[in-house]
Amino acid sequence: MDPNADAPNSVHQVEAASTSASGTSEVRPGVVNRTESSLPPNLRPSVIDVPVTPGITREAYEVELSNKSEGAAGTERFEEGYFSRHDVEHALAASPIPGSTNREGQSFLNKIATGAQEGTDYLRRVSVAAMGESGPNPPSSGSSVPQASMSDIRAISPDLALTGNIISATFNIPHSLTYRKGADWELNPRRGQSALFDAFSYLSSDEAPWNHTVVAWTGEIETPSELSPPNTPPFTTVHLSSLNALSKPIPLDPSKAPPTPPAADGLWIPKEDMQRLERQLSHNKKIKTIPVWLADDADGREDGIKLKDQARWRRYAEHDLYTLFHYKLPEPSDGRRERVHWADYYRMNQKFANKILEVYKPGDVVMVHDYALMLLPSMLRQRAPHMYIAFYLHSPFPSSEYFRCLPRRKEVLEGVLGANLIGFQSYSYSRHFASCCTRILGFPSDGSGVDAYGSRVEVGVFPIGIDATKVARLAWTDSVNEKFAALKTMYANKKIIAGRDRLDSVRGVAQKLMAFERFLQLYPEWRDKVVLIQVTSPTSIEEEKEDPENKISSRVNELVMKINGAYGSIGFSPVLHFPQYISQDEYFALLRAADIGLITSVRDGMNTTSLEYVICQRQSAGPLILSEFSGTAGSLKDAIHINPWDLTGVARQINNALTMPQEKREAMQQSLLAHVTSKNVQYWIAGFLRRLVAVLGSRKNVAATPLLDRSALLRKYRAAKKRLFMFDYDGTLTPIVREPSAAIPSERVITSLKALAADRDNAVWIISGRDQDFLMQHLGHITELGFSAEHGSFMRHPGATEWENLADKLDMGWQKEVLEVFQKYTDKVPGSFIEQKRCALTWHYRLADPEQGVHMSHQCRKELETTVGRKWDVEVMTGKANLEVRPTFINKGEIAKRLVTTYNAELRALAASSPGEGGDGTKDGNNDSSSPNKLGFVLCMGDDFTDEDMFRALNGLSQPAAGQGSGPAAAAAAAAGAAEVEADDCFTVTVGASTKVTLARWHLLDPEDVIECVALLAGVGGSGTGTTSGGVLSMGEVNLAALSAVEDHIPAH
């Protein structure tokens, strides 16, 4: 019989296969046939029939069938009721056809072909569901889903302006590379991540409507050892280690120079060979790839690149992130190694961002994969705020109790939150991530997302699948059939338990062996009748190779010898352990020959072996025993789930699987096979993209405020000569405290401000709502600082001793009336008090009962606005647990505008007296010969709504416009249409809550981050010391990473 006879040739045959003898096709059971307990809450009568508002019932919202209205073409249509169910919501399409791969009597090949077609058609159904029958290609009755096109997908959310390009960023390219100088590169398939690479192949194929490009690191590049006949002496021994420490190679021919030894400190690749690889990868028919070359700046020159210590770029991800994500804590250390690893990790992510931005066009979709690139979404968001970004984590994500042990926990979370959508393998992982964002960062979150940086980051669960069609094709080749027959003959009359794992601690190989030993103890009747064939491939995780405490390899070998010694004989060993890579044919033959698939991972993200085992068992229906800690356990619900730490429980399940009736095994296999063939890799990637398009379409007008890019900040700071700094005080330089008088600057704040203001090219100002006395008491000893007190009412220039009163001509008669209102509410609210300044009055309720304080502040504000606010030219401002009344024209924005225009006027005057050098220190000015006389760097930081005035003013000054400032110099600049400060040179930064909507271009979370940024620019170490006492060695890890990114190497001193 032809094995392909049951394979459908088209979607029509798939549909025909589901048609019964009477000619009626199977349909999903109606809702009326379901019991109430199985209904979702929104359809249960016990829920929806209970009136929420007295006198209002469900019927009040329902529209009777007689309630009709005329359509546009005169046709009747029914109006939708309040509770009407919508077929499409937020451009979400229906899932693949239910039961399409689980029909009665459906053959295996039909399941495979149908599942592949379902995955391919998934995106096509998205566009059809979103546009309905009126779309450009409406399906006819009984026809297959029409061919998708980018025009269909764009029609879902036209405002997104999708280009149809997808850029997938992953750490390793799909090939392992072997380099031969002057020859084509040898590209071999890379082991591991087969599901991800299959997804890339699908997106790159003609079946997908997208143009797909992969951006990835080259990985460690190998150089082949030259082969020569046996016993051939080497041409030279220069490159060989000496047998005796006192000996060294001597050339045999003194007339010839000794051969040049190979570079001991790295692999040199000429530019032409780099370009050759880039051409090979860009023209690859399966997956178009753009390589990322990772090396220090000093190792990369125009004529080539030197690759030294290539494994350094993966160390932080594997030593810190991989271990923690799998619930393993590294041993504590002095932190020196971690500092270097973090700096490399940061630089590696930046190099990925640089490469992506080289090929990115607005409207492209960027998909970032896995823990090695967790900083990349935020780095991309910093440089392209409107980019469409999705992130998918293929590994587990730990609970907050474990994740908070990571020293760089905040930076990692902030990096991922630059994405629009974050995907996980299982619900528990997504819940842990949202919990970490709330517990560590303080961001509001729920089961569907996190509120961050003035926007919302969606979180979803997208269990990954495999390419079932590919596995089915590879598992039944002639070579596999031969090896399968050999295995069945070799172990005739014996049951085979198959295990294939990577040899690291999280795969649970030791637990599997101990459970098998327990099985042989409890069930002696199975001795000599069951064999465990365990294949352990070498781990690719460097941390596991170097772990002296684990010694997993020795532990596994000991267990194998113990079991074979106790239960084996001369002619039979109950455990066969193969610590090696096996060929693909041997692997599939083993899965087909097995009677049980046993997976005991103690923590796992995605286990493709379990899915491939299901495909390979389509004939023999061998049960699958799967650890409940595996990421695929939630998807394969019909498998036998076990706790690998419960050895007796695992042993009992092995016995249950061996004694399971054939009927039950086949039922389990049919259910698992239906899932694996329908929820394949095409379904996974299409569903992920579908959700991303829906998220982007629903939030197209909301832009997040990206995290401040410290490396960009440092670059601009170094490029400019004249710089202006404006800092708020409370909530920016110091944390908000319950007692205002307790907000005292730390020694680190004072040291950093001193170092920054000591540079004569820096103008540093503190612009605060505090009064003069407070600022002078705590910061007045730094004479190089400029001050603006009471929101701009008073100013004191750097080096001056006298204050300038900007409100001396104002009538302050309003203060008496405001003071009476404030006193009335002070008497009503215990714990509140009044702060009287020269030009403003503030009522504080920070120490009062929180609920009472907020309630009474609303009443107080309303009373002030309806009385004093109408009589006097003042404004009532709501602060952080306070109300403040001040003259209308006095605000921080006016001060910011005044400072920028004043300093620019001075620079223009200086440039006029000494032509040839711009005001920012460059030869022709601030990188723009047409506007050479202005500030080259402006940094403004604040935390509350009063600081929004500064951000608004600076945004206006960075736009070419007339009428800014006063005086001849400002008029000349306005006439020329020049901005007072270039937008790229102006950094406006809001500090604090993640949910705030701000006019600032950048975001920081707390005052500690502000001081870190100031310390980075001023060259102050982490201990509060300057560069002369500690320098780089005492610099914080985040600042060291930013400095390394700017200099493209890790500074030694």
From TrEMBL:
Q: Where is this region: Disordered?
A: 1-51, 911-930
One of the GO BP terms on file: trehalose biosynthetic process
Is the keyword Transferase in the record?
yes
User: InterPro entries from the entry?
Assistant: Glyco_trans_20, HAD-like_sf, HAD-SF_hydro_IIB, HAD_sf, Trehalose_PPase
Its keywords, alphabetically, are:
Transferase
Q: Which domain of life is it from?
A: Eukaryota
Annotated Gene Ontology cellular components are: alpha,alpha-trehalose-phosphate synthase complex (UDP-forming); cytosol
Q: Where is the composition biased (Low complexity)?
A: 16-25
A GO molecular-function term, please?
Answer: alpha,alpha-trehalose-phosphate synthase (UDP-forming) activity
CDD domains membership: GT20_TPS (cd03788), HAD_TPP (cd01627)
Family as reported in the entry's similarity comment: In the N-terminal section; belongs to the glycosyltransferase 20 family. In the C-terminal section; belongs to the trehalose phosphatase family.
Protein's UniProt name: Glycosyltransferase family 20 protein
